[in-house]
């Protein structure tokens, strides 16, 4: 335990001189993994994403969702795509942010009686913290509420925890890469 705390303190102090890349014109690319603990449903999700900073600290973009869940003897796989928005607070190297996303999904469920394909819509609203480990990379934790609405059925929702990373690409870096 002491070693973990010491390691986190070292990372925090090393990152004090780091400048985050959340200014207008920058890009972020990354993703997260999620674990949903809704009633009678355990789900694992992987969501790569890419976004653009339309103004300082405000990014919007697109995310792709790959989702797998197993409830009793029923397995569901899904993939989806949709927009996200994110707003960072402050200018520190450990920065809180608000996040919202929507995913329009195609699902396939298999169980002992056969398989079925259907569409669904998911939305997520939450808050998180991005810890910048250098000028361009952050590790993040995100928690909030995730709701899934399935065509012709009642929806379900619950607490959602995500862990991920982001790579921030500033305008200057992109201009140098183009040359």
Q: Could you describe the 3D structure shown?
A:
With 179 residues, the chain is mainly β. It is 12% helix and 66% strand. It has two helices and eight strands. The chain has helices at residues 2-14, 171-178, and strands at residues 27-36, 42-55, 58-71, 74-88, 94-111, 114-132, 137-150, 156-169. It has an eight-stranded antiparallel barrel. The longest helix has 13 residues, at 2-14. It is elongated. The N and C termini lie far apart (47 Å). Mean pLDDT is 85; it is low at 8-18.
Summed up:
The chain is mainly beta and 179 residues long. Helices cover 12% and strands 66% of the residues.
Give the helix/strand layout.
Elements: H1 2-14, E1 27-36, E2 42-55, E3 58-71, E4 74-88, E5 94-111, E6 114-132, E7 137-150, E8 156-169, H2 171-178
Antiparallel strand pairs: 1-2, 1-8, 2-3, 3-4, 4-5, 5-6, 6-7, 7-8
Radius of gyration: 18 Å
The average pLDDT value, as a whole number, equals 85
Find the structural class using helix and strand composition: mainly beta
Topology, number of strands: 8
> What is the quaternary state of this protein?
single chain
Q: Given the structure, what is the number of helices?
A: 2
């Amino acid at each position: 335990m002491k070693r973990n705390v010491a390691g986190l303190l070292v990372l925090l102090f090393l990152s004090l001189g780091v400048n985050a890349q959340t200014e207008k014109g920058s890009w972020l690319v990354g993703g997260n993994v999620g674990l949903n603990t809704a009633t009678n449903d355990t789900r694992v999700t992987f969501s790569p994403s890419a976004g653009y900073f339309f103004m300082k600290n405000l990014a919007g973009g697109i995310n792709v969702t790959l989702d797998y869940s197993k409830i009793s003897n029923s397995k569901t796989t899904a993939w989806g795509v949709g927009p996200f928005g994110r707003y960072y607070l402050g200018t520190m190297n450990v920065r809180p942010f608000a996040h919202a996303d929507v995913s329009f999904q195609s699902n396939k469920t298999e169980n002992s009686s056969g398989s079925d394909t259907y569409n669904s819509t998911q939305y997520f609203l939450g808050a998180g913290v991005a810890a910048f480990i250098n000028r361009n990379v952050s590790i993040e934790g995100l928690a909030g509420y995730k709701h899934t609405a399935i065509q012709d059925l009642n929806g379900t929702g619950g607490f959602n925890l995500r862990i991920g990373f982001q790579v921030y690409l500033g305008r200057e870096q992109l201009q140098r890469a183009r040359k």
